[in-house]
Amino acid sequence: MFCSNNGIRQSPSSSANIINLASLLLLVIIFLSGHVVFCDDTTPIPADAGGVNGWFNTNVKLAADRKGGLDPTLAAAEESPQVIKVRKDGSGDFSKICDAINSIPSGNTKRVIIWIGAGEYVEKIKIEAAKPFITFYGSPNAMPTISYSGTAYQYGTVDSASLIVDSDYFMAANIIIKNSAPRPDGVRKGAQAVALRISGTKAAFYKVRMIGFQDTLCDDKGYHFYKDCYIEGTVDFIFGRAKSLYVNTQLHVLGDTGMTMITAQARDTATEDCGYSFVHGQITGVGTGAYLGRAWMPSPRVIFAYTTMSSVVNPAGWDINFKPEREKTVYFAEYKCSGPGANPSGRVKYTKQLSEAEVQPFISLGYIQGSKWVLPPPTL
Hints:
- By secondary structure, the protein is an alpha/beta fold.
- The protein has helices at 12-32, 52-59, 72-77, 97-102, 152-155, 356-359, and strands at residues 2-3, 9-10, 82-86, 112-116, 120-122, 125-127, 134-138, 145-148, 163-165, 171-173, 176-179, 196-198, 203-206, 209-211, 217-219, 223-227, 230-233, 238-240, 243-247, 250-254, 261-265, 275-279, 282-286, 291-294, 301-305, 308-309, 318-319, 331-335, 352-353.
- The active site is at 236.
């Protein structure tokens, strides 16, 4: 027994009940005031592929529900988004995507959703660094296509992209991004042709299809998040030094004619904080000799977890690019992958089969500090 400040004697259990009730009331007040941060950097993506959407919906809430948790500039930008319509038939605000981008002022501080109507837009598009917070949105049942035929011979490899994004906080949903240049034949010089180069940080892609051959996606630098996407190509069709998390993304290999490599991650040293993590993806395609990645640079870091691999994957899995010394510096790893292309018995000796503890840093939003910036796609 003890005495309260007013001299009334209370039992310990009575006092505990009061404290618990007060704590509950405080949580309710916080919840109703809209200051609860739902996004979680630590909860791992579940092992069951059927739980991925539930994981995403639980951990990635709308900006309005996450006050205090988002980057301050992003939270402010999301308060009053603007929608610009692009329609090929002239019924929108603009008929060309480039014109819509040009209408956005440099130093933009608000989310601008460019709603792109159905059809193919043959444009070479670049979003400058001074224009952050831009979203490309297409209707799920009528996905527009951004297409151009630039090549490395014309522009240099990274500038050959049909879409170049240098700005931060970019988002794309339900868009097809294509480089329509012909497949490299080993004869034409500079035939590499990028579909998308993403060089701004904190960018998210939802149900985006990236179409090309060699160097399809230049995942250049910054934090990036991909979900439910499709990427196809032949050689190094995902390359760069970004730190990116790919969730439920299909990688489609166009093989049977020469060397095929999925990734060419460009980490220079073991201390550089970048790398690609693929979780619950599917590797499909044509041929049988595709490598998961090659050591284009000395210390690439690429992880495949819970990935279904078809027989298109070479049994060896990985390649050191004819540089034996890189066996000691690469970080090529797999965790609980499945399918005929995932058999660990044939893998090269320098690959890693991760333990449950070792894979944890690579299978949550924390890998890309996602709680501060990853948002769900808009619905229009």
